[in-house]
Prior knowledge:
65% of the residues lie in helices and 6% in strands. By secondary structure, the chain is mostly helical. The chain is globular and about 60 Å long.
Amino acid sequence: MRALPDIVKQLIVINALFFVGTFLINPGITAIATDLLALHYPSNNRFGIWQIVTHMFMHGGVTHILFNMFGLWMFGSPLAQMWGKNKFLFFYISAGLGAAILQLAMNYVQVSSITEQLVAAGFSESSVLELLQTERYSTAWQAVISEQELMQLYTSFNFSMVGASGALYGVLVAFAFLFPNAELMLLFLPIPIKAKYFVPGVVLLDTISALTGRSFFSPSNTAFIAHIGGALTGFIIMWYWKRNQFNQNRWDA
């Protein structure tokens, strides 16, 4: 840990404290903490504005947090050493926020479009939202929307998102920008691939997963849209900084 930049070490410690404090104590506290700190749909009564930030410090299991913290250490350390703590923290949190915003925007589009079909068929919007809130539905809805749309409606309205993956995808993009020829390998595919090809390839696979619902390397409940949002935010920031030769003195640590 001594070799880690302080900001990376602090982020890992914060994530670990959230995990230990909410996941390992007892199931009851875990459920309460998840409801309070995970990201929920804004119209859901479990949503809190703080969740836009707190969700990126929550994780769903040991494997989840280990992979994310390994990625933060591996790819975040050289960035933090180059940028300093203030610039790195700004970038990391911005990528996490971008991931959350794109995921919420996509969920909003899905919920709104399907709800509009139900309202056009004579159902009141308030009754639809009330049933969604209690995770129930009217069988009469099935005459208006398909089973797939019904599942999509419930999934988008009652989703719960945790993890630092969105912020980490922004870090991956920044790493590829700054170290394009660094060679990376997947654990199950020990072939060195340059970062400038590896990172776009990973983002492309997540994009395909988001469009098709087919998961390649991640669990099926992965928030692929959030990954894309973090990567896109990271790309926009890096592009802006490079184009405008951003004033480094603004980020004095």
